[in-house]
Each structure stands twice: as structure tokens, then as C-alpha cells.
Amino acid sequence: MSRSLRDLSSHLSSGQTLTGVAFNSMRVEPGYAFFALPGAATHGIHYADEALSQGALLVISDRPHPQGVLVSDPAALLIKFGSSARNSWSAPVIGITGSVGKTTTKDLLAAALSCPSSPGNRNTTLALAAEMINLAEAGKSTEPLVLELGIDQIGEMAALVELVRPSHGLVTSIAESHLDGLGDLATVAREKAKLLEAATHSYADVAAVDHLRPELRTRVTTYGLKGEGADAEADLSAEPAGAPVLKVAGTTFRLPGVGRSVARNAAGALALATDLGVAPELAASRMTHVAPAAGRLQLHAIKGTTLIDDSYNSNPTSLAAAFEVLLASPRPQTAILGDMLELGDRADELHLAFSPLAMQVNRLVTVGERAGLIAPEHGEALRLADAPEAVASLGQLRLEGTLLVKGSRGMRLDLVTEALLRSGGRS
Fold first, then answer.
1. Is 231 exposed, middle or buried (0-12, 13-18, 19+ CB in 10 A)?
2. Cα 279 from Cα 389, distance rounded (Å)
3. Cβ(57)–Cβ(68) below 8 Å
């Protein structure tokens, strides 16, 4: 048991040993301590009994519980324990951030290094603290660790790098995203750059480096595709609607996913893995086995139609990448587009900017007020208010050619994808 969890051992019954932590009752495993935290809508104490029924040994909270340890600030204690767990790491700890592509790059790099990583999109201070504690308890602190760092407010990156203390940092992209909290592109760049400033070894996509301060650029290794002038170039080709193909030492590797954006993510993963001593051929071979993350340019075949599920989230950069894939795919082409959220004062302008691309598709379905601004003159457009209305209207669509579903997470277009898969048959 780590030093941090040993601090709680006096509250255990004889023979009990803590094996990890969770602050979501659905992620509790036998032997865990459950941190019941205050939240915006409810308090974790209401899920304490559920956590105990799933094998939790203790409840840590600022509210009393019969099997609880009462503390003034359970979230701060969890982060303190996470920092203590970070102290045990003897291997590289790699932080990855970016306006788009960070989850895919994280998954590719973890595969290339054959090492643990933060699961899914658990990229906040609390989630990463819990992950480091649990991996340390599992004896993984001698292996490299790849962590995704996500922010939508000023100051969050500083807190993340203070916790994670990355030996290596990688920025996939700097673009207009989360502007409600970050304000403008310059602030996005400044906040993302804090990861590169904190890391001993820093990497950035060559397309993003122009957003960095000149003095920071000189210590950043850039990566990119062949011929782009990056410090580390990968011999990667990708048709807009095809899987990236990587050539290493005369051998060809077909990587998962579709589109040039995935190729760029793979180039970053390859550059960092190679610098950490993994042979390029081995790194490439390992990356071929990564499954594309759900809702991120994921392809499904339904009744002869190719469904491009990119419903996990949306911002101008990722929407442009999705359009590139759609417009290179078999016709007729249908785009189901939801609002791009958190774009601040530029929201209307940034939605309108996609009108020329949207005019090129055969059918357009918009979901939400702002998405309704896209391509106002499109002759085959259906304007809907929300995801439930979109689900109810799917019968009006002919399932043929290629269909893209794309919107910010808050628009819940994953419901549309799920309905399409149910009605059309998954393959």
C-alpha cells in the first residue's frame, strides 16, 4: 500500500487493505476508498452506499457517513494523494493536450510504448490523481505513463502540470475551442503551452508551433508528415477518407482510423516513442492494433450506408477534418451537424464559415440554433431543434452513400448515432 493510502489504514478493520480509489461509484472496485465529493448538481455522499455495496472499504467525504472518514476537503485530499503517487514514478510520465486529437494520440502512443494510459477522456485533475494512485497501487510506476490533459478554463493547465509533473509533453493542436472559458485563440495557445514549459522534453505538431512564443519554439521538437519541415517527419500517407499508411524501413503499416488528422496524431506518437527507445518498426506495428475511440471518426456500415460517427465532440478544427473525410467519401453525402458549443462571441461567425463546405453535400440536417445558421441556402436541408427531434426525424433520411454525424457533446448527437445503428444494423 502506498504511503498516501497507508494514512487511511487506521480506519480499516483488521485484515483489510486499500487497493485504490474512486470518486465515481460506478468505477469502484473491491478494496477501494470512495471519495464522496460535492458536485454542481448533487453530492457524492448519496452514492456512498452504492460504492460500499460494490466493495469499497471506506467513504472519504466532507459529510458524515457510518463507514466514513470526515475531512474538510475530500477533493484536495484526493489530489494530494495523487501527487504522492506521482512521486513513486521512476519511468517517464507523458502529458498530452491539444484542441483536437489528444485522445487518439494518447491511445496510439500508449500502444507504441506498450504502457498504461489514462482511460477514455478522463483528463481532469481529479481523474488523473485517481488514475496515478490506482496504477501505483498496481505496481505500474516503473513503466512509462501516458496521460491526457484537458482544459476549458484559464488556470486548469497549471493545476494539471503541478499534479502530473510531466517529463515529456506533447501538444497536438492549438485551435479555437472552449472559448467560453478561454476567451480567444491567443489564450488557448498560452494555456496549452504551459504543458510544454513544464516538461523536460517537449513536442508539438509543426502546424501548431506558430502559436507558441518564439523562445519556447526553440526547445520544442516538432513533428509532422513527410515534406513539412518538422524535426521528426513520418513517412505517412492518408487519403482524406482512407486509413493512414505508415512506411518504416521498407515495411508498410496500415494504421487505425481515417483521415489526415489521424495521420498527424500517429506522427506525434511515433516521434515520441522513438525518442524513448522503441524501434520505429515495433512502435508502428503496435499502433496498428489500436481501436478507434468511440464517436471519433468511427466508421460503421448500415444497410449499404457508411456512417461516420464523429458525435463525441465538435469545434471548428475537428469539423473541418470531418468534412474532409465526408466530401472524399461515396455520394450521396449527408451531414447531420449539431451546434459547436463554447465558442464565445464568435459562435455565429464560426458556424456560418462552414456554409461553403455544407453546400457541397447532398443533404444537410442541422440540430440546434447555431448549427441552423450553416448553409442557409441549401436546398435539401432539414432544420431541427435538438437530438430527440433528430432521432424522431431519421425516417425522413434515405440510408445510402455516406452519412456524417457530428456535434458538440452537449448536443447529444450520440443518440442519433445509436438510433441509426439500431435501425440499420451494426457491422
1. middle
2. 51
3. no
Alpha-carbon distance 21 to 78, whole Å? 9
What are the E-state strand segments in 141-200? Answer: 145-148, 168-171
Kind and range of the H or E run holding 153: none
Under DSSP, the state recorded for 30 is T
Instruction: Find where cell 495521420 sits.
Output: 263
Sheet holding 93-97, edge to edge: 145-148, 93-97, 168-171, 201-205, 220-225, 232-234
- Do strands 168-171 and 201-205 pair parallel, antiparallel, or not at all (unpaired)? parallel
Longest pairwise C-alpha distance within the chain: 72
Grid cell locating 232: 521528426
Instruction: Please answer whether residues 315 and 412 qualify as being in contact, where contact means their C-beta atoms are separated by less than 8 angstroms.
Output: no
Are the C-beta atoms of residues 135 and 296 closer than 8 Å to each other? no
Strand partners of residue 404: 308, 335
Q: At residue 87, what is the residue type?
A: N
211-258 per-position pLDDT tens digit: 999 999 999 999 999 999 999 999 998 788 888 999 998 899 999 889
How many whole angstroms separate alpha carbon 181 and alpha carbon 188? 10
Give phi and psi for 140, each to the nearest 5: -95, 5
Average pLDDT, the chain: 94
